[in-house]
Design a protein that fits this description.
This protein has a single domain (6-130), classed as Winged helix-like DNA-binding domain superfamily/Winged helix DNA-binding domain (Arc Repressor Mutant, subunit A, Orthogonal Bundle), CATH 1.10.10.10. Helices cover 47% and strands 17% of the residues. The chain has helices spanning 29-45, 54-61, 65-77, 100-109, 112-130; strands at 6-9, 15-18, 81-88, 91-98. β1 and β2 (15-18) form a beta hairpin. α1 (29-45) packs across α4 (100-109). The longest helix is centred in the C-terminal third of the chain and has 19 residues, at 112-130. The radius of gyration is 15 Å and the shape is globular.
């Protein structure tokens, strides 16, 4: 479903004009994208511009690492996320940060009810894996 263009103000003050196509939330693909973008949006909104590596994203959202290995390059191409590389022990570690289009997805295209549902799923997956919730700061495992 597409609506005529609207102008929205993102949290960073940017004005964006969109033709709204509403994503279907029936399958798993938008749920995985929603969880990852919510997590990246959360750390971005708290001022962390270093982002998260694949391992951190998997541990913090409860998503499948193999799926993310396929999806993250697509989201990078579609400008939902940005990627930076750092070298540790002669090995490149990629870090992902939410981009403007990803923030627009979270702020505009994700219904509040779906946002709350995905947040509860993220919290539930953290609790079930660790026996208690882990904060973001305790997940820095890539370095």
């Amino acid at each position: 479903m597409t609506r005529p263009g609207r102008v929205h103000r993102l949290s960073d003050g940017k004005l964006v004009s969109t033709f709204e196509s509403h994503p279907s939330w029936h399958g798993i693909h938008n749920a995985v994208k929603g969880k990852v973008l919510l997590q990246l949006y959360s750390i971005w909104s708290h001022g962390d511009n270093d982002g998260m590596c694949l391992k951190e994203i998997v541990q913090s959202t409860g998503t499948n690492a193999n799926s993310l290995r396929v999806l993250l390059p697509k989201w990078l191409k579609w400008r939902y996320v940005r990627r930076t590389a750092k070298v540790y022990n002669d090995r490149a570690v990629f870090s992902y940060v939410i981009d403007t289009r990803g923030r627009r997805f979270v702020e505009i295209r994700m219904p509040q009810s779906k946002r709350e549902e995905l947040i509860s799923q993220i919290k539930q997956s953290r609790t079930s894996k660790t026996g208690g919730t882990k904060s973001y700061e305790s997940i820095r495992v890539c370095l």
